[in-house]
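Weekly modeling sync, notes
Attendees: S.R. (lead), two postdocs, one rotation student

Agenda item 3: backlog of single-chain predictions. S.R. asked that every request posted to the team notebook include the full sequence so nobody has to chase files. The rotation student volunteered to paste the first one in as an example of the format we agreed on. Action items at the bottom.

Example entry:
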Amino acid sequence: MTAESKSPGKACLGGILGIMISLTYSGCFSVEEPVSVQDGAGREWQSEVEKELVISGLREGDPWSLAHLHLALPEESELQNSRDQLHQLLSDIDSVIPIHGDHGERGEQHPHLLLRTGVLLQGPVISEALRNRTQQELSKTSYVKEWRAVNDYAWLLDAAARCGLKRQVLVLDGTLGDLVDESIRTLEQGDAVISSILAKSPTLETRRPAGLSDPTVAGCWAFTCGGTHLLGALVECALSDLILPEDRKRIDALLSNFEKRLRWDLNYRHLERDRAIRAGKSSRKADRNFGLAQIKVLGHGLEVLSRARRLYPEDSQVFSSSMNQMLQELENLFLSGRYPGFDPVALLQQKVSIENPETWERAHGDLSHLIRGLRLAKDSSKY
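Predicted structure, as returned to the notebook:
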């Protein structure tokens, strides 16, 4: 949810131990070993990143930056005043939810990003005021066919699901159920476009479709963060019974395809780094770009699959292979000296936000998702 790929006026916001990842492409979920998440207190890099996220997020102070900061650290004591102000804002049915802040075009600028953030921070019990505000926003919403607008529905669907709203709730040109069903079709179409790409292991010659491309070319990769926000919202819809029983298998299929895409993307990013270095590019720059790309995949992947595990309470090991692979990738990424050009704490500092704001956005947004993904992998019950 960062500025890695941008649509007009918006930003959508080596190898493991020297061995390339071995990929398998099957139609079933990974069900091997249980997921083991190290306590965050045991990761020196995580503590440093969390401290710098608070400093940089409060320093920037715009809606996009604060929304990501709350996502990463929903119980951070230094953010209590900001949480209180956000709740007060959203609880006023007549208030205007700010989008841009002083930075104008930071992040995707989705109108409902703060709404979803406020709902998420309340946990399992949502106030009547926030439920009413979410329903009001739904009543003004139409399923716009222009594909870039699809990105905004992720936040509204997520908020509606967490508020426990029903499929019959009205939107501008139909119902919430219609919005959910159309979102499923959108991701299915995106998966179909890139299925032939994911069917083969990437090589040094492979080029992934650019995120700025139309979905008819880039499939799910065209949407914000590869469509992970919309898929995550559909997971929340499934957890809240907004998915029709006959469509649950379609959610299963989307999640299975997502696993394939995660494995493919992780492998591809290693090859992309190797290709840049072989072409004579700076190894430090290659490390930085590789690290930024990896934290995007790892953070969003852990978020989606951690919550999705709750859809299969009878299977404690579902998605475990993919999640353990991501956790191992993460430990290798932050291993001291492995990628000298990737310094996430440095990327969050004010100098970077001034001189290279898009790099700062990528770091702040995706590190926020990564911290949240690690927390959910350990305990997916809230936030």
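Discussion: group reviewed the output briefly. Confidence is low (pLDDT under 50) at residues 1-32.
Action items: rotation student to repeat for the remaining queue; S.R. to check formatting next week.
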